[in-house]
Amino acid sequence: MLVFIARRLFVSVWVFLASTVVIFFLATNIRDPLAAARQLPDNARESAIAEITERLHLEDPLIIRYFRWLGDVVLRGDLGENLRGQDVNTLLEESLTATLQLVVGATVLAIVVGVTIGVISALRQYSALDQTVTFLAFICFSLPLFWTATLLKDFMAIDFNDWLVEPEISWTFTIVLSVIAGLFGGSLVVGDRRTRLTVFAGTAVLTGALLRYLSATEWFADPGLGPAIVALTAIAGAAAFTALVSGLEWKPPLQAALIAAGLGIVAYFALEEVLDDPTLATIGLLALLTVGICFGVGWLLGGELYRRNAIPAAIFTGLFTGAVIFTDQMLTSFESYSESVAGRPISTIGAETPNYSGTFWQSGLDSFGHLALPTLALVLLSLAQYTRYTRASMLEVMNQDYVRTARAKGLGERAVVTRHVLRNGLIPITTLGAYDIGTILGGAVVTETAFGWRAMGTLLLTGIQEGDPMPIMAFFLVSGGAIVIFNMIADIVYAFLDPRIRLS
Questions:
Q1: Nearest Cα to Cα of residue 83 among 43, 38, 42
Q2: Strand blocks (E) in 263-354
Q3: I need a surface site. Which of 14, 215, 244, 353 has the fewest CB within 10 A?
Q4: Is 304 inside a domain boundary?
């Protein structure tokens, strides 16, 4: 393993250095950096040209300028100054922070949701659910981003903010959404027509009743989950994670997950004062404590025989319960936050409300309100490719001989899917995910422009338009380096997913 990593690092460093040479020569010749200075009046033209020439060392040969830039980066971590004399390190830090806020969450959400839908679609091949998912995936993949952004700003922000003044759900919307939920629930069930119709009717009725209750209580104006919903959700999560990890036929993993959920419910009341206005460090510390405590619960209750299943079931349940409590605290602060921003909680432009100060939860809602639309726009486009890739990969693996052998030996369907099909089917997704995670650090120019974000894409676009090589090189250092690193990580992950692959 160490030899493989060292070899890949050695090759990657030389590939990356060669790429910097190419990009530097392209960046310095893409546009005349003195074009704007030459348009100045006579009394200011010569001094401006001389200043830019000295700042960018335009009088030196390109090869000398490249090695001066490389030396500053390697020895001092200095990315230089742009045409205006601004420190590129500062510009890069601000742009990278905005990009991480904007794109990382969208990419992770697209991967998790896309892979999940792709797995379900493959397991229900040629069913109504599979055909619906395929149809919607192609629609989402075909949507122009700028058009999607405009629609989201109009209907998901402006109209939604207006609706929050009197959050009443119409009967038409209730009926339509109930039917859609019923169709989705019925399509997930494997059985005869009577079973699917029963699930359809039950899901539709429950959805309709829930929507009418939320409308009558004006829940959306002052939302919150409350102790009962938090407890029920935690218990349901314990059962779901146990079924996913080990199945419900073994008691120790289920007991560990239920105890983890119970400890989370107790913490919901015991930490009320701590969670009133915490810090990000406090939330991180609580997450680490959750992992440690749940690990101990799984270790003790799992025993020698079931420890391998009990530990992840308990940890997943504990983190899920913590996420539910986090969501409840965030929703409880929604009304006060909405009043502080004049009833416009969903923003259409920018990364944050200027000069806004509030509690931890209110600041989180402010960030979420600014991230909601661009995240949704990016997820709609990325979701389709992960769904289709996962479905195709799963179907290919499901037809392999070793999967038929596993079923013939009597192995349960859950074990066949999770241990054999999904594990090997994730290899192409690993390649796609590693590439996407590497490229997201380069930003999303169209999304940033549509929603008024100044991030990595804007840094690159400004550098190209002004013929400024230093911001372009700063952009390439981050995006190119991320692609090299994450592709190397993908190669290492291959060996863990597929035992047939050997790093040697």
A1: 38
A2: none
A3: 14
A4: yes
Whole-angstrom distance, CA of residue 228 vs CA of residue 234: 10
For the record, the structure tokens of 149 come out as: 């952004």
In 3D space, the residue among 162, 152, 130 whose CA is nearest the CA of residue 378 turns out to be: 152
Q: What's the mean pLDDT when you consider all of the chain?
A: 86
- The pLDDT score that the predictor gives to residue 353 is 83
pLDDT band per the 50, 70, 90 thresholds, residue 443:
low
With beta carbons less than 8 A apart as the criterion, state whether 353 and 452 touch.
no
Residue 6 belongs to some domain of the structure: no
Contacts of 99 (CB under 8 A, 6+ apart): 440, 441, 442, 443, 455, 456, 457
Q: Which residues pair with 81 in a beta bridge?
A: 87
- Please give the DSSP secondary-structure letter assigned to residue 217: T
- CA dihedral of residues 277, 280, 283, 289 (deg, nearest 10): -140
Q: Cα(141)–Cα(386) distance, rounded to whole angstroms?
A: 11
- Let me know: does 247 contact 304? Beta carbons within 8 Å: no
- Integer Cα distance of 63 and 80 in angstroms: 16
* Higher-scoring residue by pLDDT: 494, 308: 308
In a domain, 130, yes or no: no
Indicate the number of domains in the chain.
1
Section 55-77 average pLDDT: 88
Which residues does residue 87 pair with via DSSP β-bridges, in sequence order?
81
Residue 105, pLDDT > 90, answer no
> In this structure, which amino acid lies at residue 302?
G
**CA 175/CA 154 separation, integer angstroms:** 24
Residue 35, token pair as written in the block: 């074009």
Determine the structural domain holding residue 259 and report its residue range: 223-342
Measured torsion, CA atoms of residues 229, 230, 232, 233, in degrees rounded to the nearest 10 = 110
Convert the pLDDT of each residue in 317-375 to its tens digit: 999 999 999 999 999 999 889 888 888 888 888 778 888 888 899 998 998 888 888 88
3-state secondary structure of 249: coil
- Whether 194 is in a domain gets the answer no
Question: Tokens representing 5?
Answer: 């990593």
Burial (Cβ within 10 Å: 0-12, 13-18, ≥19) of residue 489: middle
Long-range contacts, stretch 484-488, CB < 8 angstroms, 24+ apart: 484/12, 484/15, 484/16, 484/438, 485/12, 485/438, 486/434, 486/435, 486/437, 486/438, 487/434, 487/435, 487/438, 488/5, 488/8, 488/9, 488/12
Q: What region does 226 belong to: left with phi over 0, alpha with psi -120 to 50, or beta?
A: left
**Largest alpha-carbon pair distance within the chain?**
88
Please answer whether residues 290 and 322 qualify as being in contact, where contact means their C-beta atoms are separated by less than 8 angstroms.
yes
DSSP state of 152: I
Pull the structure tokens for residue 385. 């490719």
Contacts of residue 480, defined as CB under 8 A and 6 or more positions apart, other chains included, come to 16, 19, 20, 23
Report the first-to-last Cα separation within the chain, whole angstroms.
Answer: 8
